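Hi support team,

I've been running sequence recovery on a batch of backbones for a student project. Most finish fine, but this one hangs at about 90% for roughly twenty minutes before it completes. I'm not sure whether the input is malformed or the queue is just slow. I've pasted the structure tokens below so you can try to reproduce it. Let me know if you need the job ID as well.

Thanks,
M.K.
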């Protein structure tokens, strides 16, 4: 992850700007940070989708084996070809989920700033932008109701 994607640095810089009442700069910081994270999420999703499509093509080729004509034992209905348990997510999917949760954290911090510094009128447009974003997890909606 790049230096411009550091959560601690971005939050600290936004807080410093907020203390100096440079609210337009804080909005710009959060917008830029969210844009970088959004691009990372899109790139990671593309990798996961390409990996899943290549796995499905490999599995479809392996599934074409005719077990009736071969002298191999028939696979039982209870066995699985999967190398991972069904309830465990593949690593890339888990990474995508973790990154999406981090993305939601940034939205939550952005909404808290807007509410704290500029009041309810400013926090509503920020939440509206979050609602239109396809990567926003459910935690953002829950935190929007709990803003101080």
């Amino acid at each position: 992850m790049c230096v411009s994607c550091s959560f601690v640095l971005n939050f600290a810089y936004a807080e410093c700007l907020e203390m100096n009442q440079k609210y337009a700069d804080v909005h710009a910081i959060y917008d830029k940070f969210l844009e970088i994270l959004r691009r990372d999420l899109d790139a990671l999703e593309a990798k996961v989708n390409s990996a899943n499509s290549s796995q499905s093509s490999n599995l479809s080729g392996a599934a074409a084996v005719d077990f009736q004509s071969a002298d191999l034992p028939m696979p039982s209905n209870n066995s699985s070809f999967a190398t991972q348990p069904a309830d465990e997510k593949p690593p890339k999917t888990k990474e995508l989920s973790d990154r999406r949760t981090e993305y939601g954290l940034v939205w939550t911090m952005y909404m808290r700033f807007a509410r704290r510094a500029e009041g309810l009128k400013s926090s509503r447009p920020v939440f509206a932008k979050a609602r239109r974003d396809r990567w926003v997890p459910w935690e953002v909606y829950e935190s929007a109701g709990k803003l101080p």
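--
Follow-up from support: It reproduced on our side and the slowdown came from queue contention, not your input. The mean pLDDT is 77. No action needed from you.
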